[in-house]
């Protein structure tokens, strides 16, 4: 399936989580066997072209696509977790949200110094989480030059924020507007 055909599998839910937001729901894509397989293949081809030595994905939907891409490429997967989920010594980073802050954590032993890690996630909106993940992975010694997303919401500027931080962004599809 082409990225344009995959785009037709994304459900738009109006006014969620609040009025005026057009929520792009991937559950219809991941519930479609051929669509999910094609999405993973497209992302894997791009990750391979980036020279990925490992794949990182942010909790939770980044685990779906990131782990599948890692399996497709026979690479390790690095989970970027929400706070308090790892039972070992971790490193973490706090980052700003629209209203407040959040935190990401990783096992620094999961990364070899200089290892080329490609970030994979379902959607890039404002880019806050992806930017924090890139900074955290770099802090652990990874080389982060590329991030791959199924969906880009370009009006929210997240892809540009990543590019400004020297992370090249590739997406399978875009949805204009919120």
TrEMBL record:
It catalyses: AMP + diphosphate = 5-phospho-alpha-D-ribose 1-diphosphate + adenine. The keyword Nucleus does not apply. It comes from the Bacteria. Its main location: cytoplasm. Pathway: Purine metabolism; AMP biosynthesis via salvage pathway; AMP from adenine: step 1/1. One of its GO terms (biological process) is AMP salvage. SUPFAM superfamilies: PRTase-like. Residues 54-143 form the Phosphoribosyltransferase domain. Gene3D superfamilies: 3.40.50.2020. It is an enzyme of class 2 (transferase). It is found in: Cytoplasm. One of its GO terms (cellular component) is cytoplasm. InterPro entries: Ade_phspho_trans, PRTase-like, PRTase_dom, UPRTase/APRTase. The keyword Glycoprotein does not apply. Keywords: Cytoplasm, Glycosyltransferase, Purine salvage, Transferase. GO terms for molecular function: adenine binding; adenine phosphoribosyltransferase activity; AMP binding. Its EC number is 2.4.2.7. Catalyzes a salvage reaction resulting in the formation of AMP, that is energically less costly than de novo synthesis. Belongs to the purine/pyrimidine phosphoribosyltransferase family. NCBIfam families: apt, PRK02304.1-3, PRK02304.1-5. Homodimer. This is Adenine phosphoribosyltransferase. It comes from Altererythrobacter rubellus. The lineage of its organism: Bacteria, Pseudomonadati, Pseudomonadota, Alphaproteobacteria, Sphingomonadales. The gene is apt.
